[in-house]
Amino acid sequence: MNPLQFTATLFSVALVAGLLGSLTGLGGGVILTPVLTLVLGVDLRYAIGATLVSVIATSSGAASAYVREGYSNVRIGMLLEVATTAGAIAGASLAGYFSTQVLAVIFGVVLLHSAWLSSRRPKDSVDTTNADPLATRFRLDGCYPTAQGLSCYHVQHVGAGFSVMLGAGVLSGLLGIGSGALKVIAMDRAMRIPFKVSTTTSNFMIGVTAAASAGVYLNRGYIDPLLAMPVMLGVLAGSVVGARMMARARPSVLRVVFAALVGLLAVEMIISGLRGRI
Amino acid sequence: MDRMIGVLLRAGVILSAATTLAGGIWHFVQHGGAMPDYHVFRGEPSELHSVGGVLHGIAQGHSESLVQLGLLMLIATPIARVALSVAAFAVQRDRTYVAITLVVLTALVASLAGLHF
User: Which of A10, A208, A244, B67 could serve as A225's disulfide partner, Cβ 3.0–4.6 Å?
Assistant: First the structure.
């Protein structure tokens, strides 16, 4: 392949990843790194750098649409950002000490977990009676607009949520992904935040967390401009198109197919890592 | 404030995408064929590692540096958003959250400036 063809291939792959990621809500990053490394033979570190940059693009692009609707809770987001940025800087620093084989295996395991999660339907379990004293101290409780008017919630288990976020930050920094799945778990399961609020708040946090890791990757020389350019532009274009299509359809079949694809790539990542081919 | 944040995010993404694309087109006009081999990791030259290095590279007429500037603008977008949030909490006289947001902002700036373990 000549450089122009290679760039066009990268753009097309990223476009499809961005489209699928936005339609399924899983984010394009989860399949981008495996495809770049396993199919196109890009070194894992370059692939992680390029994916990370794309994650910032899609998160910021989507957040600009959400921010006016009044779903996301800026206080919850900012408090948890303390955990995710600290985790991300630690994770991105750690990435320099692991071999690409070890990183590939960890990546595969995390991918398998997200594939499994995405095949399950999220369920709201909102507590409207009692609040965690920490939630009151940090004024985390909030309300959001629904069809029946404002709906209010009390935030639970702030400490547990904060700890899971620290882990989400480490994984995000280590693997260059958004860790959106883990962020939503911390907010849905532990802190009992309504699904609409947790999804949009997590989306805002993904960009900030990725920016923290990106600084470390940039200084380590993992972000190659000519590789990241088509990848970032492709994912961005794909997610914009995906968001437009989403208004018309909610494809659940696509979700299952995408989860299966993610699972397949995960197994391939683990095998390649164990055999030392990556 | 929400409106401003929305505009900032959108402007950041559009500007950085445009800059990156312009740098990419410039690269292909300037060099056509030449492209590194991504199968082997070598790490980027130090000119592409930092904000100062990138600006220096553009002054020297390196197209890769312009692409990297676009990527830097993208990384700066969420950081600018956090900076705006500091102002938003200050307007509400919410000292706890001004402090929390400043911690996040400091971590982000430090990481971009080259902090790692």
Answer: B67
Q: What global pTM score does this model have?
A: 0.91
Residue B117 covered by a domain = no
Q: Letter for the amino acid at A115?
A: A
Facing B107 at nearest CB: one of A46, A85, A229? A85
Higher pLDDT, A105 or B49: A105
Q: Is A78 an 8 Å CB contact of chain B?
A: yes
Q: How many domains would you assign to chain B? A: 1
| Pick from A110-114, A231-235, B14-18, B106-110: least confident | A110-114
| DSSP labels, A78-133 | HHHHHHHHHHHHHHHHHHTTS-HHHHHHHHHHHHHHHHHHHTS--------S---H
Spell out which residues of chain B touch residue A42, defining contact as CB-CB under 8 Å: 38-39
What distance in Å separates the CA atoms of residue A138 and residue B95, rounded to the nearest whole number?
A: 11
Does residue B78 fall inside a structural domain?
yes
Q: Residue window 31-60, chain B: list those with CB within 8 Å of chain A.
A: 32-36, 38-41, 43-46, 48-50
In which domain, by residue range, is B17 found? 2-112
Chain A nearest-CA distance from B105, in A, is 9
Tell me: the pLDDT tens digits for A162-186?
A: 999 999 999 999 998 888 778 877 8
